[in-house]
Design a protein that fits this description.
Elements lengths: L2 H8 L3 E11 L9 E7 L22 E3 H8 L5 E6 L8 H9 L3 E6 L11 E4 L9 H6 L2 E6 L3 H10 L7 E6 L4 H14 L3 E3 L3 H4 L4
Parallel strand pairs: 2-4, 4-5, 5-6, 6-7, 7-8, 8-9
Antiparallel strand pairs: 1-2, 1-3
Length: 209
């Protein structure tokens, strides 16, 4: 990567684009709705159960002009979901500014491990034990999505629920490879603690991206 390109990436005028696709949102509050997903490469949070580990190394994904990402997105949907990797690794100001100028509704799926940049209509915070969210993301999160892999994750979820704002919707979501084991635990937990809701990866049941 040339220094010129690196500078543009640092400014958010180019981003390491892994993939972009139009599909149905499978998780959380907006599940079942059509959205255009923009997956940005680069993540150092390192979840061992991550199902897109190929997104971790930013250098594997070509720096792409933000204008090109926006031009592609506006052909398909008014709802854009920026995901990763960890999109907040990069400055999201330019991307969201351009999407807003096109009248888009912009969502982000983030671990919250880095400072919040950009202007968002919906923030899905999915915190990880390895690298906790910044306070700014806790304060502005619209939904908290805690992944349940084992029993200790319920304790972690309650710790995270204490840190988000009072309007944040609380979700527990089974880790896909452990779903047969943890779904009954989640059902029992939500029935005993109804402030929580169940989130499922419905796109995997639908066999879509």
């Amino acid at each position: 990567m040339t220094q010129e390109v690196q500078n543009l990436v640092n400014q958010g005028k180019m981003l390491p684009l892994m993939e972009e696709f139009y599909t149905i949102q499978g998780e959380g509050f907006h599940k079942g709705t059509a959205a255009y997903f923009v997956r940005i490469g680069g993540c150092d949070v390192g979840c061992h159960w991550c199902d897109v580990k190929e997104s971790w190394i930013a250098q594997l994904h070509p720096p792409t002009e933000t204008e090109k990402i926006v031009a592609n997105a506006k052909q398909y949907s008014k709802t854009i979901v920026v995901t990763g990797g960890e999109p907040l690794t990069w400055d999201m100001t330019e991307l969201t500014k351009q999407l807003k100028a096109e009248g888009m509704s912009i969502h982000i799926e983030t671990s919250g491990a880095y400072e919040l940049t950009g202007e968002w209509d919906w923030i899905c915070l999915s915190p990880k034990k390895m690298k906790l969210p910044t306070q700014g993301v806790y304060d502005k999160a619209n939904e908290l999505k805690c992944i349940i892999y084992n029993k200790d994750d319920f304790r972690f979820a309650e710790e995270q629920a204490e840190k988000v704002n009072g309007d944040c919707i609380l979700y527990l979501q089974p880790e896909w490879s452990k779903r047969d084991k943890v779904v009954p635990m989640i059902v029992d937990y939500v029935m005993a603690n109804p402030k929580w809701k169940v989130s499922l990866q419905t796109h995997k049941y639908l066999n879509i991206p």
